Amino acid sequence: MSRFSYRRRDRVTAEALADAIWMASGRVYGMPEAAAFVADELVGKVVEDAPFAQASGMTLITGLAGLWRDGWQPVDVWQITRRQIGERAAEFTVGAIAAEAVCHADATRHPRWQAQLAQLGAMQWWRPDEMYVGAYAERHGLASAGVVELVLQVVAQLRMLPKQPLLIPPPGSYTGPGAASKAPSGPPADGVDPKMLAKVRALLAKAEATDYPDEADAFFAKAQELMSRYSLERAVIDAMEDSRGLAAVQTGGRRIWLDNPYLSPKSMLVNAVANANRCQAVFDQSLGFVTVVGEDTDTEIVDMLATSLLVQAGRAMLSTGARVDQRGRSRTKSFRQSFLVSYAQRIGERLVEASDHARSEVVASLGDSTLLPVLAAREVAVQERMSEYFPKIVTRRISVSSSAGWVAGRAAADLANLDVRSSLKA
């Protein structure tokens, strides 16, 4: 029986209502259609002017703060509510994220955290003397029961999320460089050089815009080569500036969300980019994201390159059209899965070629004796971070049932001449 048993005429505090909403959300998990009934039941137990908006806001902020401590980030929460509940709940949750962010000083938010807030548009649009949930209800014409129903749906989904590795410090605890601003426009203070990012983004935009696979592949390979060379040269410079000749390796992780369908083959694409850039990747199939673990600069590179590659792979896959067998039965699903698996494998091979070429240029310039100790230190540091984040991981294989899809995928990945020195000039 619920502990919330006030009589209709009783006054009730916002704190007690918040506690009741949190408890009631457990009855809604897995049954979102029950949210309306549970909300009506809650609202019906108290006086009409009970502070439901305030209580709902308290429930959301408390729940989000707990998620941040458990390793989740703003984009993660938005992705989950959008996929599991719907766009309306996702929009509502973005406002709640903005309301929670107001609780922390700008300088105590990690630059990547601040960038995610900007990406989501999680900014305060309600008046300073208003509460978010009340302002949202007024804007959308929601009564108390409608507000509570929405809060129950969101909280029921989010409170059951499993704990994740803490990839960046939650708001209120960050004390590093690159203090956040209200409108971040660049990378963290210790991230990739903005000029290099601009050059690579321009190459990736060209790769995504062209209708010619060989052009797209050349642009992408150039971007991979530029970023690999940048990462290696920066690692050596950092080590040379360190008094011991070997700077401490800053490692961490990033999450890359994948869109249905064909999540497993798409995760292989991300893994291919990660391996080519000295990182490791772990796929969470139940929620649909990949966590990339590596040196901080390398994970930023993987995030950017993998996002672009997923766009290009999807376009190449769709260009093959639908497939049927000799009896007229659809073979599109098996063909496309095989296509993406093959595409990922071949792209991985070619990315490693581009990365190795960049490495050979750095070795020619600086020498093996300078680069190899740096790479060895990075490999050890990445493995240690991987063991910390994921002490127990399972390796899975993806089956291929369409030889035609395999051949087509490998051909699509192998169309271009990756001799970027003759295709493009830096």
Topology:
Elements: H1 14-25, H2 35-43, H3 52-69, H4 74-84, H5 87-101, H6 111-120, H7 132-140, H8 144-158, H9 194-209, H10 213-241, E1 251-257, H11 263-276, E2 280-284, E3 289-295, H12 296-318, H13 332-366, H14 368-389, H15 403-413, H16 420-423
Antiparallel strand pairs: 1-3, 2-3
Helix pairs in contact: 1-2, 1-3, 1-8, 2-8, 3-5, 3-7, 3-8, 4-5, 9-10, 9-12, 10-12, 10-13, 10-14, 11-12, 11-13, 12-13, 13-14, 13-15
Description:
The protein has helices at residues 14-25, 35-43, 52-69, 74-84, 87-101, 111-120, 132-140, 144-158, 194-209, 213-241, 263-276, 296-318, 332-366, 368-389, 403-413, 420-423, and strands at residues 251-257, 280-284, 289-295. With 426 residues, the protein is mostly helical. The protein has two domains: 14-158, no CATH class; 194-423, no CATH class. It has a three-stranded antiparallel sheet. A hairpin with a 4-residue loop joins β2 (280-284) and β3 (289-295). α1 (14-25) packs across α8 (144-158), α11 crosses α12 and α12 (296-318) packs antiparallel against α13. The termini are far apart.
